[in-house]
Specification:
Elements lengths: L2 H26 L8 H4 L11 E11 L18 E8 L5 E9 L4 H10 L11 E3 L10 E2 L20 H26 L11 H21 L10 H4 L14 H12 L6 E2 L18 H9 L6 H13 L1 H9 L2 H15 L1
Parallel strand pairs: 1-4, 4-5
Antiparallel strand pairs: 1-2, 2-3, 3-6
Helix pairs in contact: 1-5, 8-9, 9-10
């Protein structure tokens, strides 16, 4: 079988999994109003977390993107990644996944996008998910106390001393569900840790497809040995930073993050349209698309834009980079270009 047939079969398989996943999702999109046994039958959690329906967090998956936009995909982890937001039930089933955000994006921005999408994360009234301190407390999201001991290992030799520490300990005990979910997902589907070689749109779809398959496996074989404690495998080297306040991190995210990450490639189950394609490095620039993109930029004289277009046609790499940018960054590039050449 030649490479083209392999690629076509692979893409067909991904499309089929996502199509089936959209149907499966109708049954698992939101946890029901019934209290989960893990809470109802545990005196540590009941009645304090009786309205909790799961946990939410983000994880980073390796991404391969054109060099012109790699800066937007570099976050606190090495290399380029996509930031994937997921909500999970206490049965370790993903009930919402938003993949494709750039690795530089602050987790709170990704969550905000998920909450405001037309088919985004919907949280039943009076219910909530557990989130880490980075999300803050908001309707439907319950976070722990900041600057208070939180992780289980911090209490191993030193039990809670006050109500806030006790709350954080129980919050952490429940929220490990999402860490376990990510750990199982990455252990089960090693492709998520490998260097991608297909388009970024496909990379996003692969993440969603893996989550769909994970849910199916959990449904038919909940006692799968891989479902053991894999919490430490989800973020093996970052435990020391989790739930620790980084000074001015939110302010830095506003100043820097919005200039880098746009979320224009993000995609979730149920979305009717695919994410915006990432412009690849190879291949010619489509002159008509480039002309429309350049000439539609507001704030410049027509003859100036025409001059920039002529330059990009001659320098194809520059043209490809321009097409890969968000409108705001395209305008910024043009301003810099005109200041140097006009």
């Amino acid at each position: 079988m030649d490479n083209r047939k392999i690629r076509n079969n692979f893409m067909a398989a991904i499309a089929s999994v996502l199509a089936v996943g959209a149907l499966i999702l109708e049954d698992i999109r939101l946890p029901g109003n019934e209290m989960h046994p893990d809470i109802r039958n545990n005196r540590r959690f009941y009645p304090y977390f009786k309205d909790c329906i799961g946990a939410i967090d983000g994880t980073h998956i390796r991404a391969s993107v054109p060099i012109e936009i790699q800066g937007r995909f570099r976050g606190r982890k090495d290399g380029t990644t996509q930031n994937v937001l997921a909500a999970i039930t206490f049965d370790l089933k993903f009930c919402y996944v938003l993949a494709g955000w750039e690795g530089s994006a602050h987790d709170s921005r990704v969550l905000d996008d998920a909450l405001h999408r037309s088919k985004g994360l919907k949280i039943p009234e009076g219910k909530y998910y557990l989130g880490d301190a980075g999300y803050g407390n908001k309707t439907g999201i319950l976070s722990p106390y900041r600057k208070v001991r939180y992780h289980l290992q911090e209490f191993s030799d030193h039990p809670p001393e006050n109500a806030q520490e006790l709350f954080n300990l129980r919050h952490s005990s429940l929220r490990t569900t999402i860490e376990r979910g990510f750990g199982v997902l990455k252990k089960r589907f090693r492709v998520l840790g490998a260097e991608p070689f297909w388009s970024f749109e496909t990379q996003v779809e692969v993440v969603l497809a893996c989550c769909v398959l994970h849910n199916h496996i959990v449904g038919v074989d909940p006692d799968d040995p891989i479902m053991g404690d894999t919490t430490s495998e989800a973020h093996p080297t970052h435990a020391q930073y989790l739930n620790k306040k980084i000074e001015f991190y939110d302010q830095m995210a506003i100043v820097v993050g919005k200039d880098l990450a746009t979320g224009s490639y993000a995609f979730s189950w149920g979305d009717e349209t695919s994410p915006n394609p990432v412009v690849e490095l190879d291949g010619p620039v489509d002159a008509n698309e480039l002309y429309e993109a350049v000439m539609s930029t507001e704030g410049f004289a027509e003859e100036m834009l025409a001059s920039a277009f002529d330059y990009m046609i001659q320098e194809e790499k520059v043209g490809r980079a321009f097409m890969a940018k968000a409108p705001k960054l395209r305008k910024l590039w043009l301003e810099n270009y005109f200041s140097k050449n006009m």
